[in-house]
Design a protein that fits this description.
about 40% strand; about 200 residues; two-stranded antiparallel ribbon; mainly beta
Length: about 200
């Protein structure tokens, strides 16, 4: 008889690629996954744009800082409280086109001039804010979505490497998630997770 006892739902063993979708921050916040992608053909819904192929996966990170409380009569901390939170989404765009450079590098407007497409890259004073969703299809074909209310580009070195051999060119990008203070529930101000 086995010593270890457990009951698991292997539908929740997660491994595999996900999709990253972007929308204007003015896009209505979704109330279900079906507001982001069609549940019949999985196409992005109106207002949402699929960011396409990624490399190195899509990483969602959650972190916080805290300060502790101590007293003279105790050798250990007696309490701690959070002092800051940071949430981020990072990936590398595999498609080396102007649209992906524009997102990763906070590029300017893409314009067609004669037979060329052109985009400037400069020093904008503010970052463009967007909505962002990471949608994953589990082995049972059910979807899980992480929907961020407001993100902006975060400092991230992103380079264009031209090599004879090796990996193809990608554009690293990192988004910082920001709270939406118009949401009354502080537990729902940064992002929501919808799970079918």
């Amino acid at each position: 008889m086995a010593f270890h006892r457990y009951s698991v739902n292997d539908d929740n063993f997660i491994r595999g690629a996900a999709r990253l979708l972007l929308a204007a921050v003015t896009q209505a916040f979704p109330t279900s996954i079906a507001d982001i992608v069609s549940l019949t053909n999985y196409n992005a819904q109106t207002g949402w744009t699929d960011a396409g192929a990624t490399k190195t996966g899509i990483t969602i990170s959650n972190n916080n800082t805290e300060e502790t409380f101590d007293i003279d009569q105790e050798l250990a901390d007696i309490d701690s409280r959070p002092t800051g939170y940071e949430y981020a989404v990072a990936t590398a765009f595999e498609e080396a086109d102007l649209e992906h450079m524009q997102i990763a590098w906070e590029g300017g407007t893409i314009a067609t001039v004669g037979s060329e497409r052109q985009m400037g890259v400069g020093t904008p004073a503010v970052y463009l804010k967007r909505r962002l969703a990471v949608v994953f299809q589990k082995s049972n074909n059910k979807l899980r979505a992480f929907i961020f209310r407001k993100v902006q580009r975060s400092p991230q070195e992103s380079v264009a490497v031209f090599n004879k051999t090796g990996e193809q060119q990608t554009f690293a990008v990192r988004f910082k998630a920001l709270p939406d203070p118009s949401i009354a529930n502080v537990d729902e101000r940064v992002y929501m997770v919808f799970d079918q």
